């Protein structure tokens, strides 16, 4: 299924099988690991919860209600899927106040597994890794096809696409991004600019993600999503700093082949970190049909950034459960999608990309 607003993006493997994921929430498990351990004291209460059938935002509201604080005093490192079994941390700013009885949150869909304190709030992106366990059912496969897939992914990684979760049901986040653009460019008197609501943030993120995916898809078609081309900006695996080179030498080629670095693509916005040469040509051409999203991001004064074109998959393992079902387990960094890995092996119902 492909939305008119969301074109299909190129795979590196065109011979994918069919299979079913998320037949029940327990088939898709995500466990969050932070970049640090809470110190055990401080004015921020930290709660580690297991949830099923609940969004991160709904859980945050429940925590705020129990702690009798405003929702802005509750923080989390990242959004987790509603239709999955997920574990994640939340922090609550409670200066000079004791923690409530967190067990009062417990229900069939939500369970507090751990609570502690820390001297700082939890911030977006402070995730060391997300551990995934995904069961695929009704799968036609052979042991050799599984082995080939594992070896290929461990050797070269997969394209680091934003997948359907980022765009919403039937790409509604993109539709709302266009509506947001219409509202900001109309002749009507505009209200004073306010801090973005969570929903507006989702629409803007979807617009940036579409532009990034267009560039990545073009690089996949060009067979350079994991290779260096003239004008590229590179990023070190597991790091945020980027760098360019005057010439692509053997050292750069070796570091790319050993997954130490990857080329990057644009997270569009103002004050962009421009690529040059062939890389710039591919990026500009790939985004040329989506000027309305570029205009939105410019108007909203979203600061540009860049993202690795390649997703390096850590500790990928596959367990054969039956003649037509397997379990994938792997670790991904913050902001990356398990379905970006799965789409290179299977096509599943509801897949929009």
UniProtKB/TrEMBL annotation:
<dbReference type="GO" id="GO:0008033">
    <property type="term" value="P:tRNA processing"/>
</dbReference>
<dbReference type="InterPro" id="IPR001656">
    <property type="entry name" value="PsdUridine_synth_TruD"/>
</dbReference>
<dbReference type="GO" id="GO:0003723">
    <property type="term" value="F:RNA binding"/>
</dbReference>
<keyword id="KW-0819">tRNA processing</keyword>
<keyword id="KW-0413">Isomerase</keyword>
<dbReference type="GO" id="GO:0005829">
    <property type="term" value="C:cytosol"/>
</dbReference>
<dbReference type="InterPro" id="IPR020119">
    <property type="entry name" value="PsdUridine_synth_TruD_CS"/>
</dbReference>
<dbReference type="GO" id="GO:0160150">
    <property type="term" value="F:tRNA pseudouridine(13) synthase activity"/>
</dbReference>
<dbReference type="InterPro" id="IPR042214">
    <property type="entry name" value="TruD_catalytic"/>
</dbReference>
<dbReference type="Pfam" id="PF01142">
    <property type="entry name" value="TruD"/>
</dbReference>
<feature type="domain" description="TRUD">
    <location>
        <begin position="157"/>
        <end position="311"/>
    </location>
</feature>
<dbReference type="InterPro" id="IPR050170">
    <property type="entry name" value="TruD_pseudoU_synthase"/>
</dbReference>
<dbReference type="InterPro" id="IPR011760">
    <property type="entry name" value="PsdUridine_synth_TruD_insert"/>
</dbReference>
<protein>
    <submittedName>
        <fullName>tRNA pseudouridine(13) synthase</fullName>
        <ecNumber>5.4.99.27</ecNumber>
    </submittedName>
</protein>
<dbReference type="GO" id="GO:0001522">
    <property type="term" value="P:pseudouridine synthesis"/>
</dbReference>
<dbReference type="InterPro" id="IPR043165">
    <property type="entry name" value="TruD_insert_sf"/>
</dbReference>
<dbReference type="InterPro" id="IPR020103">
    <property type="entry name" value="PsdUridine_synth_cat_dom_sf"/>
</dbReference>
<comment type="similarity">
    <text>Belongs to the pseudouridine synthase TruD family.</text>
</comment>
């Amino acid at each position: 299924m492909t939305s008119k607003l969301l074109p299909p993006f190129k795979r590196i493997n065109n011979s994918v099988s069919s299979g079913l994921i998320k037949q029940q929430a327990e088939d898709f498990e995500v466990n969050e690991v932070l970049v640090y351990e809470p110190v055990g004291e401080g004015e921020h209460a930290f709660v580690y919860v297991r949830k099923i059938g609940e969004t991160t935002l709904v859980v945050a509201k429940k925590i705020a209600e129990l702690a009798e604080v405003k929702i802005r005093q509750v923080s989390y490192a990242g959004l987790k899927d509603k239709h999955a079994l997920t574990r994640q941390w939340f922090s609550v700013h409670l200066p000079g106040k004791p923690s409530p009885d967190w067990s009062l949150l417990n229900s069939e869909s939500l369970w507090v597994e751990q609570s502690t304190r820390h001297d700082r709030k939890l911030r977006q992106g402070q995730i060391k890794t997300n551990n995934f366990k995904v069961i695929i059912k009704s799968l036609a496969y052979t042991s050799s096809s599984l082995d080939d897939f594992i070896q290929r992914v461990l050797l070269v990684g997969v394209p680091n696409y934003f997948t359907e979760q980022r765009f919403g049901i039937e790409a509604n986040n993109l539709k709302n991004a266009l509506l947001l653009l219409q509202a900001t460019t109309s002749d009507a008197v505009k209200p004073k600019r306010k801090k973005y609501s969570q929903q507006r943030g989702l629409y803007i993120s979807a617009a940036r993600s579409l532009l990034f995916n267009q560039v990545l898809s073009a690089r996949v078609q060009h067979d350079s999503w994991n290779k260096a081309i003239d004008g590229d900006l590179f990023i070190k695996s597991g790091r945020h700093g980027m760098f360019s080179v005057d010439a692509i030498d053997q050292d750069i080629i070796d570091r790319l082949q050993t997954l130490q670095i990857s080329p990057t693509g644009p997270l569009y916005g103002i004050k962009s970190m421009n690529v040059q040469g062939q890389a710039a040509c591919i990026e500009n051409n790939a985004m040329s049909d989506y000027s309305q999203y570029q205009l939105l991001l410019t108007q909203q004064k979203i600061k540009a950034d860049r993202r690795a074109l390649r997703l390096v998959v850590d500790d990928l393992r596959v367990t054969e459960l039956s003649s037509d079902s397997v379990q994938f387990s792997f670790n991904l960094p913050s902001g990356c999608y398990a379905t970006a890995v799965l789409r290179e092996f299977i096509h599943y119902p509801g897949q929009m990309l």
